[in-house]
Design goal:
The chain is an alpha/beta fold. The protein has a single domain (about 1-200), classed as Leucine Aminopeptidase, subunit E, domain 1. Helices cover about 35% and strands about 20% of the residues. The chain has helices spanning about 60-70, 70-75, 120-135, 155-165, 185-200, and strands at about 1-5, 5-10, 25, 30-35, 45-50, 90-95, 105-110, 140-145, 175-180. The protein has a 9-stranded mixed sheet with strand order 1-2-3-4-9-8-5-7-6, with helices on both faces. β6 (about 90-95) and β7 (about 105-110) form a beta hairpin. α3 (about 120-135) runs parallel beside α4. It is globular and about 45 Å long.
Length: about 200
Amino acid sequence: MKVHNQLQLIGRPLRGRFNAKSYVFSIMKNIFLIQGDITKADVDVIVNAANPKMLGGGGVDGAIHKAAGSLLLEECRKVKPINGVRCPFGEARITGSGDLKSKYVVHTTGPIYRQANDPAYLLKSAYINSLNLALEHDCNSIAFPAISCGAYGYPVSEAAKISIEVCGMEKYSELKIYFYLFSSKLVNEWKVAIEEFTHNKAF
């Protein structure tokens, strides 16, 4: 293990600026796990785990809106709602980023696990639609939270597997993909998902 400025790096060294308290892990060429604050991510796109109204909320959504300031809410209001819904479950919308370092914020609404008929499909769609928006806007890097793993109640191990299966697609191999996870438990679940994905891909 190599320690530099209190930043623990495991796997390949990373370039860019990270929170000094972050824990960074990578065994894939373009997917990285960081235990840290997504609002500090120095990437082209920060993904917000939004709700359908896209006007802020709790958890990651609230933290991103707080860090981005009022400009982000103004950007969200520009998205035309249909019956009050700006971003249906499984879909994604892109806006400016307010005071964040990123160029854009992609807002995606993951499934509410116990209410969705097919939560796996919706969660997969949320990741795919977010990544596609990043590519469409010529972005090179994107930061995700653990979509639907908070108040929406998605089982963490299942969510981690879905996220890595999507992000590991060849279509997204040129994107630098960072998962900002708020606890060591989440980091460990994503590590397991990456290790299983790379093992299965090898056989």
